[in-house]
Design brief:
It is a single chain. By secondary structure, the protein is α+β, with helices and mostly antiparallel strands. It is 41% helix and 16% strand. It has 17 helices and 17 strands. The strands form five sheets. Strands 1, 2, 3, 4, 5, 6, 7, 14 and 15 form a nine-stranded antiparallel beta sheet that branches. A hairpin with a 2-residue loop joins strand 11 and strand 12. Helix 3 runs antiparallel to helix 11, helix 6 packs parallel to helix 13 and helix 12 runs antiparallel to helix 14. The longest helix is centred in the N-terminal third of the chain and has 22 residues. It is globular.
């Protein structure tokens, strides 16, 4: 949610303030945390149809029911659109996808406990309402027109703008779900190393978590259709960011990129003002058509950072954005993968060594091939499956060395077991779904709503 107007922060007059804003995210290793986010589709149990905002089985009723667990509502136009509890939040994506943004936690054990606690709460309330939730990368049955929009002004602005810049942006908004993890860095150099490593390896994450082979009731020809959707959503603000691999990349270069990403909105006096397609550079110069003569505040920059959608996104931390939504086991596996790779110095060195001579062209080709081919993509005389096993071994070594143990003495490495099973078999989750569709479900996607629901 955007900050209230009396908390928008300092006025921005110079680019160096924006660079400093990102640099302020640097933290000593002892302060590094793990923030996990995941989205879920909400559906009616009786007929598997998508759920709207209003009504006895609506999203509003779900948000109100969750308040029994101490969640505090956030309103827009007197309608609850989010919930807050400490450092956690529950928010709504434009099509009603129900998202938990978890607290910054020290271990994946804590992350998994947070996820499990949230899902217990959701099941209790949803069950009383006759609705359910499922983790997939793309809505498997219903058309875009059947997905009911949520009453959020920010989303309304995006709905008007998206068809101008791509053919699949409205599908991204209303019919996709993801799981992502947000991780810290200690310095600009550490950020650069982590950004390059994770961006190069993001196609492996996409393949391991590929979980969206259906749309509108039938196979769509992809293993991660969610990932494919991003290729024609809005190329001004998404993709693989080749400049990250260029010499001299750092906070300032990312700021330059963000300044060239067209704006969506400005938040003032509790309202979203449509600034779609306008320039933040003009805003800094006092020439924004939506607010002529006004200068931005740091809250406006913070908002603008959230409107870029690359495969890895920099704010005051790094967000890993390549994975489809999935079942609860993989909600814990995603942070395990990236924490294992990025939070142990030896693992980060090994992962960086692995990718350091990969060319931008090779990485771009991987990104393009993975949505259809998953782990079968050929790469340098091997397959992505074989490379992923090497990457998982590096990650598990990193988790073992972190040695963050639970109450029975296990470190975080076992959270990778489900990914080792996927890579070992070479079969992505999407291929398991397709197998069920052909054999067990006899050509129907309806059983996915029972077999794979939370």
């Amino acid at each position: 949610m955007s900050a209230p107007p009396n908390a928008r922060g300092a006025t921005i007059a110079h680019k160096h303030q924006l660079v400093e804003y990102l640099a302020e995210g640097s933290k000593p290793e002892a302060a590094w945390r793990i923030g996990t986010e995941h989205e879920k589709f909400v559906f009616r149990l009786a007929d598997h149809r998508p759920v709207g905002y209003d009504g006895p089985q609506g999203i509003r009723a779900l948000l109100e029911g969750m308040q029994r667990f101490g969640w505090e509502p956030v309103y827009e136009n007197d309608q609850p659109v989010a919930l807050l509890q400490g450092l956690c939040s529950i928010t709504l994506e434009p099509g009603g996808q129900f998202e938990l943004s978890g607290a910054p936690l020290e271990t994946i054990h804590e992350t998994c406990a947070e996820v499990n606690g949230h899902l217990r709460q959701v099941r209790e309330v949803a069950g009383e309402l006759g609705i359910g939730m499922i983790g997939l990368g793309f809505e498997p049955k219903w058309t875009r027109a059947e997905m009911q929009p949520m009453p959020k002004a920010r989303s309304d602005i995006m709905r008007r703008y998206m068809p101008k810049v791509g053919t699949l942006g409205l599908d991204m908004m209303h019919r996709t779900c993801t799981v992502q993890v947000n991780l810290d860095f200690s310095s600009e150099a550490d950020m650069v190393k982590k950004f390059r490593t994770s961006l190069a390896l993001q196609p492996i994450g996409t393949a391991l978590f590929a979980n969206s082979p259906f749309s509108e009731g039938k196979p769509n020809g992809f293993l991660s259709y969610r990932s494919n959707v991003w290729t024609d959503t809005d190329n001004d603000r998404s993709g693989m960011l080749p400049f990250v691999f260029e010499q001299g990349f750092g906070f300032e270069r990312y700021v330059d990129y963000l300044l060239d990403v067209p704006m969506y909105f400005v938040y003032r006096d509790g309202k979203y003002i449509d600034a779609a397609g306008q320039s933040f550079r003009d805003f800094i110069a006092g020439r924004l058509p939506a607010l002529p003569g006004e200068l931005p505040h740091m809250g406006d920059w913070s908002d603008h950072l959230t409107t870029a959608f690359p495969e890895v996104r920099l704010k005051k931390f790094l967000e890993m954005r390549g994975a489809d939504g999935g079942p609860w086991r993989r909600l814990c596996a995603l942070p395990a993968l990236w924490v294992g790779l990025l939070y142990d110095a030896q693992a980060l060195d090994a992962a960086h060594e692995l990718i350091k001579d990969w060319t931008v062209e090779e990485i771009t080709q991987l990104r393009a091939a993975v949505p259809r081919q998953g782990l079968a993509v050929p790469f340098r005389g091997r397959t992505l499956r074989e490379v992923s096993l090497d990457v998982l071994a590096i990650a598990r070594g990193g988790l073992h060395r972190r040695a963050r143990r639970n109450n029975v003495g296990d470190d975080e490495g076992f959270f990778l077991d489900t990914l080792f099973q996927i890579a070992g078999s070479g079969r992505t989750p999407a291929e398991e779904l397709l197998s069920d569709y052909e054999a067990k479900w006899h050509g129907s996607v309806d059983p996915v709503f029972t077999d794979y629901a939370y």
